[in-house]
Amino acid sequence: MCITIGQYIFEYVCKIEPELNEDGLINETTPHYRYKNKKNLPLHNYGQGPFCKFRIPKGHKVGGVYAITVGKIVKYIGECQDLTSRFNSGYGQISPRNCFKGGQETNCRINSLILKAAKKDDVLSLWFMETEQYKIREQELICREEPAWNMI
């Protein structure tokens, strides 16, 4: 299964589905409470959470441009050197340190947006285009498509 974004073909990777708890509800986390904040760093704009946990299938250890869709609408476009790592160690698992100033604000923001969409029972999908020119292609597609989650 494929979609076209701009002039490029993106292959379907998977649905993005947050982990559920024993009650069948999305397991929400607030990892910043687990951080030993010895430097008294403030939370960044997206650090409060809540967040969710999710994983994508292994085996996408390649660089390229990815897109997150909600329903049929492209909501976010990003680039990576390793898709599996970007999602499984980045967006899908928010570490406590990343919730504070100097941490990964983008990881927290995108995870939070995924959680909000999933709580509304929206269908979230991940699409990928392998390319060595991922930085150039990402910027080109963001400028062309103006995805809502990139513009926040």
Write the layout of secondary structure elements.
Blueprint (H helix, E strand, L loop, with lengths): L1 E4 L2 E8 L48 E7 L2 E8 L2 H9 L13 H15 L4 E7 L3 H12 L7
Antiparallel strand pairs: 1-2, 2-5, 3-4, 3-5
Describe what this molecule looks like in 3D:
It is a single chain. The protein is of the alpha+beta class. It has a single domain (2-150), classed as GIY-YIG endonuclease, CATH 3.40.1440. The chain is 24% helix and 22% strand. The protein has 3 helices and 5 strands. The protein has helices at residues 83-91, 105-119, 134-145, and strands at 2-5, 8-15, 64-70, 73-80, 124-130. It has a 5-stranded antiparallel beta sheet. A hairpin with a 2-residue loop joins strand 3 (64-70) and strand 4. It starts with a strand and ends in a 7-residue tail after the last helix.
Order of helices and strands: EEEEHHEH
Low confidence ranges: none
Largest sheet: number of strands, sense, barrel closure: 5 strands, antiparallel
Terminal CA distance: 29 Å
Number of folding domains?
1
CATH topology name:
GIY-YIG endonuclease
Output the CATH class name. Alpha Beta
Helical stretch tally: 3
- Which secondary-structure class do the elements indicate? alpha+beta
Number of DSSP-assigned strands: 5
Over the alpha carbons, how many angstroms does the gyration radius reach?
16 Å
Strand content: 15-25%
Q: Give the helix proportion (percent range).
A: 10-25%
Which descriptor suits the 3D outline? Answer: globular
- Looking at the overall shape, the CATH architecture is 3-Layer(aba) Sandwich
Mean pLDDT: 95
The main sheet orders its strands as: 1-2-5-3-4
